[in-house]
């Protein structure tokens, strides 16, 4: 398809109809709401399903392996976004890629909804990883297509869209978690599948009317020859993977180690290519050098934040008193705390930065505050851990831990993608979205190895060491922030 200019896209989209925004925002808001509902709902109970004994409806993995699988799954989701972006740019366009991704996700949840073996679980994970990689990086891109770059509604539109993400993440653990833990895991996974189905229905029924030609552009179409070559390559890799699994060459532990290596190696390769490229000038390489410590800081932050769905989820299930003020709690409900706090505090932070204006902290300082708060969220957990593994602790400890990491997230995450695009060399601008996603992929690849220590060393040492490393790294980043700022060459 020939390239479509932004003016033509804007003309095809009804510009009113959803709180003063383009009507297409309705379509994308509810598509993403239901996708996040299905994703976070499934994730809220997946860890418990993995390590629950088979007689009780689980798969019976040991807890260390279950945590590692969760981390590797998260890492692969973010790695697959690179493929999703590539397919959108070269084959399908963003809107079609979003729809195809939703189909993969739905069938992945459907597979989980049926009682099955570990093999069925791996198939479902493959479907969800592929589907999320197709959908996640592209749905926000379609949101951008609804507005001109000068449209004053643009930032507000993304804020509304972001609210849909967090509302889906807030409700999912409460509904899917309750169904999964109180009744049956597969009933919970079925609810997640229904959520994605609803998202697909909304998208399919309203796409033509609300989105017009937004997301239909294929900016760099793949040639027929390249398409055939790519297809053959994918088939060969798939066959090789099946043979490796069937022959026992690729075991779950080897796969975990392989993904962990890739999670670290891929970002390193990205940086080497950009630093050695003749397409990047001296100023761009200076900015790239400034980005390296920010990238490392983001990896540290996500390494802690993502343990909310693994280590803290395990802690909630086994070490926490699941009652508060006479209310019976489900351990999966704690996964709603992150989006709840974001919904509450995101507007406050947005107001604060606006109020401070030019006096607000620089990007490196915001990053340092973010990882210091993340470190404190783990330091806090040292105190309940001191009570011993046999004691059940107050759920308020977990509430406080999640609150601190969310405050850190609001300092680091909103500016992370923005600064990534600003500091990347122009020749590599199309790959900048992938770079930011890779901070999370690398973090979870590291977690797959580190989280296995949780059951092997005292909890106080685990939480204390990781928390202290994060705080020290934040302090170092704060000290060198003036140097980083100078290297950014005018980028704020």
Automatic annotation (TrEMBL):
Residues 24-489 form the Major facilitator superfamily (MFS) profile domain. CDD domains: MFS_DtpA_like. It is a multi-pass membrane protein. Keywords: Cell membrane, Membrane, Transmembrane, Transmembrane helix, Transport. The keyword Transmembrane helix applies. It is found in: Cell membrane; Membrane. One of its GO terms (molecular function) is dipeptide transmembrane transporter activity. GO terms for cellular component: plasma membrane. Belongs to the major facilitator superfamily. Proton-dependent oligopeptide transporter (POT/PTR) (TC 2.A.17) family. This is Di-tripeptide-proton ABC symporter.
């Amino acid at each position: 398809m020939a390239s479509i200019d932004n003016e033509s896209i804007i003309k095809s989209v009804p510009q009113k109809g959803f709180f003063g925004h383009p009507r297409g925002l309705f379509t994308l808001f509810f598509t993403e709401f239901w996708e996040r509902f299905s994703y976070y709902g499934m994730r809220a109970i997946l860890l418990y399903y993995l390590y629950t004994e088979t007689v009780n409806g689980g798969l019976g993995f040991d807890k260390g392996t279950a945590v590692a699988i969760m981390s590797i799954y998260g890492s692969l989701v973010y790695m697959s976004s690179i493929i999703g972006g590539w397919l959108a740019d070269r084959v399908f366009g963003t809107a079609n890629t979003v729809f195809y991704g939703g189909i993969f996700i739905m069938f992945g949840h459907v597979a989980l909804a049926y009682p099955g073996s570990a093999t069925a679980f791996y198939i479902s994970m493959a479907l969800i990883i592929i589907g999320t990689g197709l959908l996640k990086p592209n749905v926000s891109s379609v949101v951008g297509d609804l507005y001109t770059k000068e449209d004053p509604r643009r930032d507000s539109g993304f804020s509304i869209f972001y609210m849909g993400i967090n509302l889906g993440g807030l409700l999912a653990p409460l509904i899917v978690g309750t169904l999964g833990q109180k009744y049956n895991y597969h009933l919970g996974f079925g609810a997640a599948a229904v959520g994605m189905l609803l998202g697909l229905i909304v998208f399919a029924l309203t796409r033509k009317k609300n989105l017009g030609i937004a997301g239909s552009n294929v900016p760099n179409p793949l040639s027929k020859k390249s398409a055939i070559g790519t297809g053959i390559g994918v088939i060969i890799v798939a066959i090789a993977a099946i043979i490796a699994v069937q022959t026992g060459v690729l075991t779950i532990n080897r796969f975990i180690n392989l993904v962990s290596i890739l999670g670290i190696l891929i970002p390193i390769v990205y940086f080497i290519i950009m630093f050695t490229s003749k397409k990047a000038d001296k100023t761009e390489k200076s900015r790239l050098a400034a980005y390296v410590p920010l990238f490392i800081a983001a990896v540290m932050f996500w390494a802690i934040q993502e343990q909310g769905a693994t280590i803290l989820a395990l802690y909630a299930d086994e070490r926490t008193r699941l009652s508060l003020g006479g209310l019976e709690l489900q351990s999966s409900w704690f996964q709603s705390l992150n989006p709840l706090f974001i919904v509450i505090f995101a507007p406050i932070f947005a107001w604060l930065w606006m109020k401070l204006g030019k006096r607000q902290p620089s990007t490196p300082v915001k990053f340092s505050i973010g990882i210091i708060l993340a470190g404190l969220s783990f330091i806090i957990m040292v105190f309940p851990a001191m009570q011993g593994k046999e004691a059940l602790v107050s759920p308020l400890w977990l509430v406080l831990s999640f609150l601190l990491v969310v405050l850190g997230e609001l300092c680091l995450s909103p500016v992370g993608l923005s600064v990534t695009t600003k500091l990347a060399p122009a020749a590599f601008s199309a790959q900048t979205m992938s770079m930011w996603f890779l901070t999370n992929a690398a973090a979870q690849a590291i977690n797959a190895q580190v989280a296995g220590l949780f059951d092997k060393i005292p909890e106080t040492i685990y939480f204390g060491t990781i928390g202290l490393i994060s705080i020290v790294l934040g302090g170092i980043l704060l000290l060198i922030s003036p140097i980083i700022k100078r290297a950014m060459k005018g980028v704020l």
